[in-house]
Structure formats: structure tokens, C-alpha cells
Amino acid sequence: MPFLHLCFAPRLFSVCHRMLEKPPFLKYWTKDHKIYEQMEVDFREIPNSATVTAPNHFFPHLSQRDLIYPHVVDGQETDYILVDLRDDILRIPPKKIIGYFSSPLNYGTVKFVPDWYLILKKEYSKTLNNEVADYLSYLD
Questions:
Q1: Where are the beta strands (DSSP E) in 1-140?
Q2: How confident is the model at residue 77 (pLDDT cuts 50, 70, 90)?
């Protein structure tokens, strides 16, 4: 019988360790769940047939699409570009994001939630672009 206990001890330790890791993520969800839920709604509004460029951690939320590209692919023009603004250091330089607004790329801002996320669409209204450019200029 003691041998059996020794077999399950590592598993019990592993389960307890994983349970202790969860509370910080739960704290973030509890604090900002409305923004996370809105982000899901906004991502679902992107048509399934659209091509998307996004950071890798957004891929699960976009998985029903045929073509999703990571930001590291340069020169790839897609219908939508998603930018995560939660990081202290943006994965795309702010000047490059602002460059998406001008010709020939001609992206417009669909959704902008400061300090959270940005959704750009090719050949879309540019009414929010100045607000986004001002925000990004402070991050540069």
C-alpha cells in the first residue's frame, strides 16, 4: 500500500501546483471580463472568409478562418490586421502600424480599445485613424 501512495504523490503535487497557478489569471478575468467578452464579439464580427494578420495568442479566437498570418510575415497584405496593445512592448513598431493607414496599404480602424486591442481593415473608413496615430505616437 505505501508503494501505491508513492505512485500518486507526484500527480497530486502536480495538480495542486496547477491549481495555485490559476488564481492570477482568474483575477485578470474577474477584473476585465467585460473587455475580454467585447474582444470576442469584435473578433467574431470578422468574416470567416477574410484573411487576418494577428499575434499568435489571438489565433484560437480566429481559428474558424482559413488564412491567419502571424505578424512576422512582412509584405503579406490581409483583409484585417489585429494588434494587441496590452503588451508593454508592441510586437509591431508603432511607426509601422501608422504606415498601414497610408497608400498603398490603405487600412482603416474598425475597432480601437486603448491599452487593449486594435482591429484594422483594408480600405475601411479612416475616421479613427488619427486617434490611433496619436495614441501610438506616445508609445514610440
A1: 52-53, 68-69, 80-84, 107-113, 117-122
A2: confident
